[in-house]
Design a protein that fits this description.
CATH topology of the largest domain: Glutathione S-transferase Yfyf (Class Pi), Chain A, domain 2
Shape: globular
CATH class of the largest domain: Mainly Alpha
Strand order of the largest sheet: 2-1-3-4
CATH architecture of the largest domain: Up-down Bundle
Radius of gyration: 16 Å
Distance between the termini: 29 Å
Number of domains: 2
Helix content: 40-55%
Number of helices: 7
């Protein structure tokens, strides 16, 4: 029986889950959520995730929220050591980028996109400043290495790529970050890659 993803097509966090499943070859039943109508804040979705957010991922009796946690589960259950290693050093190197996805990228490129594309009332100047800082840090990393961690594609790249690739929707251009743009293209070239609107 396929795992289920309660999904919003325009959400980068939902897309991360769809993308990793596509790259690994995990069958996935995608269930669209009427986000604008607030379906994620009502039963049955609010029963599955009391945080009233998406994505929500269900594999049998297991229900998970938070895209980074879902990526960890998928990688360990179906992806093996290549996507998320279990040795302490490798796991830590990948995990530190999962934290970047949850923090600097979420509050930078993602927030700028929420403001410009979806009309969220937030400090867009602050979001763009945070975007510039994290993209400069990523540029340094990716000018040295093809991937964010371990010299190969891992869940670190899948967690971080979507909102970076969508940064133009928040008024943040990648033209000043050629190594970052080349990395996005490398992710797009992975066998099994699927896109989303604007990627």
């Amino acid at each position: 029986m396929a795992a289920k993803l309660y999904d919003l097509e325009l959400s980068g966090n939902c897309y991360k889950v769809r993308l990793l499943c596509a790259l690994i070859g995990v069958p996935l039943e995608v269930i669209p959520v009427d986000f604008l109508a607030g379906a994620h804040k009502q039963p049955p979705l609010s029963d599955l995730n009391p945080f009233c957010e998406i994505p929500v991922f269900q594999d049998g009796d297991l229900v998970l929220r938070d895209s980074q946690a879902i990526l960890i589960y998928i990688a360990r259950k179906w992806g093996g050591e290549s996507w998320l290693p279990t040795d302490p050093a490798g796991l830590a190197q990948v995990s530190q980028w999962l934290m970047v996805a949850e923090n600097e990228i979420a509050r930078g490129p993602n927030d700028a996109r929420l403001h410009d594309k979806f009309g969220y009332k937030l400090d867009v100047a602050h979001a763009r400043a945070k975007s510039a800082r994290i993209l400069a840090l990523m540029e340094r990393q990716l000018a040295r290495d093809a991937w964010l961690a371990l010299g190969r594609p891992t869940v670190a790249d899948i967690a971080c790529m979507p909102y970076v690739a969508l940064s133009h929707e928040g008024g943040v251009a990648l033209e000043h970050y050629p190594a970052v743009a080349a990395w996005v293209d490398r992710v797009k070239a992975l066998p099994g890659f699927i896109g989303m609107p604007e990627i």
